[in-house]
Specification:
69% of the residues lie in helices and 6% in strands. It is mainly alpha-helical and 301 residues long. It has two domains: 185 residues, no CATH class; 107 residues, no CATH class. It has a three-stranded antiparallel beta sheet, with helices on one face. Strand 2 and strand 3 form a beta hairpin. Helix 1 runs parallel beside helix 7, helix 4 crosses helix 6 and helix 4 packs parallel to helix 7. 20% of the residues are buried.
Length: 301
């Protein structure tokens, strides 16, 4: 469940519209991708723990226990940083998710800071012979306050199950917020199809550029320029920029070059073989632009 949710969240974050926004602050973007990878990696570690057979000796059991308790803590930290990078909000584990906070405390007591917790407030030891795959026992001393020595059984597998369910809930909420945000953006263009910006007579206007009539060429070229400008502007509104869309940027670069060349030299080039090559290229690139517009319309439908 967690890995599938992560894949869906990645898809939204890598959408050119969202990625452009996130990339405006490189620290935010780096924190985001680091958090996504770390949530994934820590879950892989947790899954590996679940696949282990029952522990056969104490040496291995410490390594496995240290690893899984640390993985649970790392995953929580990564979830918090994911939430911060996307929504500029921190998760208050103690208040919002007390069960996850308790798991953090188990980790801190058992393998995080067992020899000194909270400036000599407490000291902790794992009972070596108690370590099993599903649980372990821990002794806690409180000399500073005089509290009674505490003997606790920490249910490792139960902690993993609780964290899986609650982390999945957080990721579902994250995904829902991303979906809502993107759908709200798409609604702005629901009735504005890019393909409709091409006049039905657009191919006719392109063909007319082959004419020897200077006035006819000028009139039709003006319509082509206007259409191109409107399409480019509308695509920019949908994605904020073309930085995350190299294929579209490349196409626009080629069309910009051709249109600028023709606009400046259209009359001096007329009748030359070079002029026909430019027009042929223009037709091919505009057909490619049509195809892209249809794909974008589908993306925003």
């Amino acid at each position: 469940m967690i890995l599938e949710l992560l894949r869906e969240i990645r898809d939204y974050c890598n959408h050119p519209w969202k990625k452009t926004i996130l990339f405006e602050e490189i620290i935010v973007w780096n924190k985001l991708i680091s958090s996504l990878d770390t949530i994934d990696d820590s879950q892989q570690a947790i899954n590996s723990y679940l696949e282990l057979p029952e522990f056969k000796n104490n040496t291995d059991s410490y390594l496995f226990l240290y690893g899984v308790m640390q993985a649970l803590n790392i995953q929580q930290d990564a979830i918090n940083n994911l939430y911060t990078s996307l929504f500029d909000q921190k998760i208050d584990w103690k208040d919002q998710y007390p069960e996850l906070y308790e798991i953090r405390e188990y980790r801190n007591d058992s393998i995080g800071h067992p020899t000194n917790r909270k400036n000599n407030y407490s000291f902790h030891m794992i009972t070596r012979n108690s370590i099993k795959k599903e649980s372990f026992e821990m002794i806690s001393f409180y000399p500073k306050t005089g509290e009674k020595t505490d003997y606790r059984k920490i249910k490792t597998i139960e902690c993993i199950d609780i964290q899986r369910d609650l982390i999945s809930d957080i990721l579902k909420k994250t995904l829902q917020e991303l979906e809502t945000e993107f759908n709200d953006h798409k609604e702005k263009f629901e009735d504005k199809k890019l393909i409709d910006l091409f006049p039905q007579t657009f191919d006719y206007h392109l063909t007319k550029l082959y004419e020897n009539d200077g006035l006819m060429v000028k009139v039709n070229f003006k319509i082509i320029l206007k259409t191109y400008s409107e399409i480019k502007n509308e695509i920019s509104k949908r994605y904020n920029s073309f930085d995350m869309m190299p294929s579209i940027q490349e196409l626009f670069d080629r069309l910009d070059y051709l249109l600028n060349k023709l606009e400046n030299d259209i009359f001096s080039l007329q009748g030359e073989n070079e002029f026909e090559i430019y027009i042929n290229s223009l037709k091919l690139y505009f057909q490619e632009l049509r195809n892209m517009c249809e794909e974008i319309d589908q993306d925003f439908s």
